[in-house]
Write a structure and sequence with these properties.
Blueprint (H helix, E strand, L loop, with lengths): L3 E12 L10 E16 L4 E2 L2 E2 L6 H7 L6 E7 L9 H13 L7 H16 L5 H8 L2 E4 L8 E7 L2 E7 L6 E6 L6 H14 L3 H21 L2 H18 L4 H11 L4 E5 L6 E6 L2 H10 L3 E5 L7 E5 L1
Parallel strand pairs: 3-5
Antiparallel strand pairs: 1-2, 1-13, 2-5, 2-6, 3-4, 6-8, 7-8, 9-11, 9-12, 10-11
Helix pairs in contact: 1-3, 2-3, 2-4, 3-4, 6-7, 8-9
This protein binds (R)-mevalonate.
The site of (R)-mevalonate has 13 residues, from helix 4 and helix 5.
């Protein structure tokens, strides 16, 4: 291997986060914000010109175990960390895409190995983020057979997630970033503890699954009114699970006047929300007026790719 640059997109979850960890369906879309990673074999491992500190880079510790030797690692990111937009999955996927670029590594191996890194660092996870980052475009996890071409299955600790390509109709999504860094691991752990102490937690998780299945049908029909309503319902269910926060609720609430629907996206606890709309300027204005940072995402983004190799 010589010098290789690869990139992978961030993602947003349209429906089903958290419940997907427990085998329920979910929908994710790759977004036009990417992480790039350049790897160069070297006499010691460095990260962006500094010596490698394992405490600061738990994801890299996990991935470097797959490396044939020390590397100079250079990364650039368009995705704020802890924003709910899949920065850690995009980093893992871009790193491994660069590392495997000399093999004929297929996407299933890439998505699985990037997921193993997420699992190791977060403690518990589903393969949705790394699969969206690997495949790009849109994916359905544990969706019905007729929702799209089967891509791969990933199994961990007796759970199997089936990943399918999902055709995404033309739609405009505005992201509102709260500016609050909210790593995924503690929020996934919060839901695990809630399930232990609350008898209704599994009912809520089941309802998220039902809302998501209905959302997959609405997506297939291009029914944005129905999809938006289901997204807002999902936000309410996620709030009951305890993963929303005042800042997210404020941005969701402010967006609803000009949207089909709105919800938190990703792990919650801060991070970002999304609104489905055909009035993006007005939604951006509402988000800004409540202290969030808005941007309109472009969908149809390609998955992990090698950009340069020499
Ligand atoms: C995070 O983007 C999505 C969660 O469902 C965690 C996971 O599926 O690994 C909260």
């Amino acid at each position: 291997m010589s010098r290789v640059t690869a990139s992978a997109p961030g993602k947003l979850i349209v429906l089903g986060e958290h419940a997907v960890v427990y085998g329920k369906p979910a929908v994710a879309i790759a977004i036009d914000r990417r992480i790039r990673c350049t790897l160069t074999p070297y006499n010691e491992t460095t990260v962006n010109g500094r010596s490698f500190d394992p405490d600061k880079h738990p994801y890299l510790v996990s991935m470097m175990r797959r490396s044939p030797g020390p590397m100079r690692i250079e990364t650039t990111s368009e995705i704020p960390p802890g924003s709910g937009l899949g920065s850690s999955a995009a980093l893992s996927t871009a790193f491994l895409k660069a590392l495997y670029s000399s093999d004929a590594a297929d996407d299933k191996r890439l998505a699985t190995d990037a997921f193993l890194t997420e699992y190791e660092v977060q403690g518990r996870a589903s393969p949705i983020d790394t699969s969206a980052s690997t495949h790009g475009m849109g994916i359905a996890v544990n969706g019905p057979e007729n929702c799209g071409e089967h891509l791969w299955d990933i199994t961990m600790n007796g759970n199997t997630w089936s990943v399918r390509d999902l055709a995404i109709p033309k739609m405009t999504i505005v992201v509102g970033y709260t500016g609050i860094h909210a790593p995924t691991g503690p929020l996934v752990e919060k839901v695990r503890r809630y399930r232990q102490k609350c008898r209704f937690a599994d009912d809520i998780i089941g309802e998220i699954g039902t809302v998501t299945e209905e959302g997959m049908t609405a997506l297939r029909k291009g029914d944005l009114v129905r999809l938006g309503k289901l997204m807002t319902d999902d936000h309410k269910l996620l709030s009951i699970l305890g993963v929303s926060c005042d800042e997210l609720n404020k941005l969701v609430d402010a967006s609803l006047r000009h949207s089909y629907g709105a919800k938190l996206t990703g792990a919650g606890g801060g991070g970002s929300m999304i609104a489905l709309t055909d009035e993006p300027e007005k939604v951006c204005g509402s988000i800004t007026s409540r202290g969030g940072t808005p941007f309109v995402v472009r969908t149809g983004e390609p998955g992990a790719m090698t950009e340069h190799k020499n």
